[in-house]
Amino acid sequence: MTTVTTRTGGRRAPPDHAGRAHRLPRVYRLPGVYAPQADTGLLAAHVRQEELRPGARSLDLCTGTGVLALVAALRGARATAVDISRTAIAVARLNARLHRCRVRTLCGDLDGPVAHERFDLVTVNPPYVPSADAQTPSRGARRSWDAGTDGRLLLDRICSRAPSFLAPSGVLLIVQSSLSGVDATLAALGRGGLSPRVVERRTQGFGPVMSARSAWFADRGLIAPGVRTEDLVVIRACRP
Q1: pTM reported for the whole predicted model
Q2: CA separation for the pair 233, 202 (Å, rounded)
Q3: Beta bridge partners of 234
Q4: DSSP single-letter state for residue 120
Q5: Cβ atoms of 196 and 235 closer than 8 Å
Q6: Which of 110, 125, 142, 227 is most solvent-facing, going by the fewest CB within 10 Å?
């Protein structure tokens, strides 16, 4: 089991205004479980900025190590973490115990395990990297980031489901790449009756996964030839 203290591997951690990386709780992970990286740090920073009343209900979908559920729980939320991977759920449960946080962990597809429940804050760091494979992998590390040829297999489902799992005045925070259709996410959330807006956009260089696909991205028109950067985008959507 690996201890994760910073965002490593495919993405670099963005600095905050003090020139330091967004700090995250120290977590453990197993192979195949997504390591918290730059996108996780951006989302965690916005979770910390949200006004959470005591006992607010939070939901973290595609939880991975459970680190975003931990950030919400440490702020006093009644946190729930969901992932389709049993390994990820076992890791998230362990990390919650190590931090002495009460986090409900459930295994299932997106919000399926919490159908008919409503949450004040929902966070999602879904797979969003465009891939030559039309379907998401059923296992392995690529399951954490591959999301179909346009990167939207999970994003579209989340956008369509969001109105059903948000409480009145509830907030959805979601992070994605500029290569996977930011305008499409905003439009889909708006059609669902939410009020979405981009609250942060950070440009960063490609990590190993994105660099290996740069020629394919250019052929698809997702980037200009020679470009080796993407924007990480945090979208905040509020239910009236």
Answers
A1: 0.90
A2: 7
A3: 175, 200
A4: E
A5: yes
A6: 227
Quick: pLDDT tens for 153-196: 999 999 999 999 999 999 999 999 999 999 999 999 999 999 99
Which of 231, 199, 234 has the alpha carbon at shortest distance from 11?
A: 231
Secondary structure element (H or E) that encloses residue 215, with its range = helix 214-220
CA 147 to chain centre: 13
Q: Tokens standing for 46?
A: 């916005």
The residue written with tokens 């115990």 in the block is: 97
Taking only the tens place, the pLDDT of each residue in 79-113 is 999 999 999 999 999 999 999 999 999 999 999 99
- Measured between alpha carbons, how far is 227 from 154 in angstroms, rounded to an integer? 25
Instruction: State the residue for tokens 């998401």.
Output: 136
The H-assigned helical ranges of 9-124 are: 38-49, 67-74, 86-98
Which of the residue ranges 27-36, 117-126, 136-145, 208-217 has the most confident prediction, judged by mean pLDDT? Answer: 117-126
Tokens in use for 166? 């948000």
The amino acid that residue 80 corresponds to is T
